[in-house]
Amino acid sequence: MAAIAALHSPPEDNVIRALTGFSTRNPWKVIALWAVVGIFLSGLGQALLFRVTQSQAGDFLPSTYDSAAALKIAEERFGVDPDANAVTVLVARTDGKPLTGADERTIGAVAEKLGRRHVTMPKSDEGGPAFLAKDYSQTPRFSPAMVAPDRGFELLSVQLTGNVTDPGLQNLYRTVRDDTRQAFAEEDLRTGFTGGLADMVDTVDAEKTTTIVVGILMVGLIVLINVLVFRSVLAAFVPLLAVALVGGAASGAVVGVAMLTGIKLDPGTPSIINVVLIGIGVDYFLFLLFRFREQLRARPDLPARTVSGEVSARVGIAITSAALTIVAAFATLGIATFGQFRVLGPAVAVSVLVMLVANLTLTPALLAVTGRKMFWPSRALAHEPRPGMSARVGDLVARRPLAVIVASLALLGALTAGLTGIRMDFGQGGGAHKTAAATTAAEITRALPAGVSDPATVYVQATDHRPLTTGRLAALPTALAEVKGVGKVGTTVLDDDRTAARIDLYLTADSQSAQARHLVAGPLRDAVARHTPAGTEAHVGGTAAIFADVSTAVDHDLAIVFPVAAVLIALILLALLRSLLAPAVLMIAVSLGFAATLGASTLFFQHLLDKPGVNFVLPLVLFLFVVALGTDYNILISDRIREEMAHPGPARAAVARAVRHTAPAIMTAGIVLAASFGSLGVNADPSTQQIGFATALGILLSAFVLSLLLVPALAALLGRGIWWPLRPRREQGHHAAEPPAEQPYRDGDLVH
To answer: What interhelical angle do 543-577 and 581-601 show, nearest 10?
Structure first.
């Protein structure tokens, strides 16, 4: 029992040992419980997801921001429904000739007929049980908008109410679109559709095949990697099945918490959670699998269930610390002012906690049940592996630590140099797919201002209790018309009790562009401030105004979240490593990795691809994902280095052994996690592409450069002094499972 005794945990880790011990003693009960809970929460989460999401970015801004105040006036004074979605319908003659008076009367008659028709939401096989899905059946509101100056087309506005990300509303829109197209086609008129809902549905339809293919390829890659590493059927598929089950449970838990607390999630939160859970779930399972195989090979006389319990308890300490760094980093988003961040952080934190509990209960139970069959039909347990790449990397780091440190710092420094001249890009449009909605928008733009289908709006509210009149407000629209970039100023509209007014502005730039954002944040708001009548207050709303305020909120949050998250991660490292110097080394390493990743992303997107800059949320996303997830690998290697240094012998030999044993797990896990995030790189949305590329690169740098080279080399150079002021307690001899330092080792090499 010497090998197992050597894997003992300190007293403060009794909770982890209790969880893993119970799970390995009662594996079938634990597996059955997770199966029931996972399936139930997964179904519940899918069915109720769209009841707890909101798609309007302005709803996530605090009321102190100008665009949020404008949105409040729009809802309270003008009855604007925050869930209302305007679809712009272009109607033109099929022969390309200008519209005649008869054509306009026909368009009006058809629109009136369509506006009286109740549309039933089609049944869908998406989004969970049908009886829990929200019914979006409604009567669309058709209203005339304007006729092009050259009479080439007429625009209609169609109002559909609901969550644009819900497949139910998307199916309803498809029905309305098809009915509208057919009704006008019968009158020999062609139609085009644009607007947020139309563009989203077109993008979903265009990406459907790509999404399915990428998902299959990602799963296939994970299976292939596991097959190459373990040469086993169960080891290839069991982690994926377990992660899928737990991922469904975690998503359901997030939806449940949101329902109970009244929190609204951002539509992108579920996809981010899925990517995170697939990556870290498979990673943590792999950490246990590699150590499990190592101990089964070293002590074939021990029952597999005993080995499973002790290995799960020992590795569970590192996994718990690694998961808590992610939880701590994302939990700091709860103090952000921007609502999308404020809900994303706790949602990811809850999901990771669920995955952590699963890795301390479900994974040990699965290992206990499968035992040595987990690695069938491979015969790797029956013989000692040959020397391989892991052993060579460990020997190199131990023999030449200074050279490895210099080479690693040179690479990271060269990538960090890409930060020179970095610019933030706040543009939201420009996907890879040229959708029908985008084509229609381009046709409208050729005849009308680019912002005609999505105007900026100035809301004026009386504060002196005097009624508003168009004469009292006359100076404001006149001044707005003189602002460069405002193509047209709409008629001033007063509310019923004349205490508020609305002035629509049709910008010459697309409302989602950086040009529109700068126009609203600068000249437009300046003009409003100078010409707002006495006794009133004015606020600028609309998409461009919302993006302008979002950029301000993000800048504010970056200055707060970065230091708070760094302090929390450092405290967790202090608790795990019981040292002052080692956590400082790891924090410096991950900081270099973050800077290098952001620099490389700037080089690639801004300089090589000539993009306007890097997406404005990329620094925060990279900090959270690369620093938090990258710290996982540093924790794993550091924990093993400390364990090996507890044995007698030179510190550098201990580092070599630690790298030799841990490199295969880190390399495999890094590739899996990078592939998970890299799958976002094929998304049509440019910001998602950048996040996928940059995060995948950051994970690879963290795994292959920081965790396998820089951190072990620093440990080899500093020796046992890295654990100052405490040092690992030296044991009287090697445990039986540890091969001599001189013996070549190739445990779990990527190719064998």
So the answer is: 150
